[in-house]
Amino acid sequence: MKKILSLLFVTISVILTSNVNAATCSESNVTINSIRPVSGNYPSEKHQNTIELHHDSRDWCSLSDCVVSNRYRVVVEATDEHIVSAAYMAFVAGKKVDIHIDTSLGTKNGICVVSYLTVKK
After folding, report:
1. pLDDT for position 27
2. Contact 118/97 with Cβ under 8 angstroms?
3. What backbone torsions phi and psi does residue 111 show, to the nearest 5 degrees?
4. In the chain, what are the domains?
5. Using CA atoms, how far apart are residues 73 and 11, in angstroms rounded to an integer?
6. Structure pTM?
7. 98 CB burial (10 A radius; 0-12, 13-18, 19+)
8. Are the C-beta atoms of 65 and 107 separated by less than 8 Å?
């Protein structure tokens, strides 16, 4: 019984602390300058089936997860079709967007991942 309780305690502790170092950041009034869809057959597995949104370089709240050399772009998972659609719509219409990132989603080789995107009127 002690082993089961100990294992349960460790499991709960891991779950509760898994995103302790996660941080969020939003950048407002971003203009998407270009969009780069990346193939599922791309050699770098981390970039497969993603869409890069290129924009003027931003600070991204100085988050260390967002590598300085990559702060001109963010990435969207292709499975997030609603975010992908909103990004294309904003790009074609010339609309500014607010981009929110959350480091608990990880990065793609130092490129931060979009958790949500707001299209401005």
Report:
1. 94
2. yes
3. -100, 125
4. 21-119 (2.40.50.110)
5. 36
6. 0.80
7. middle
8. yes
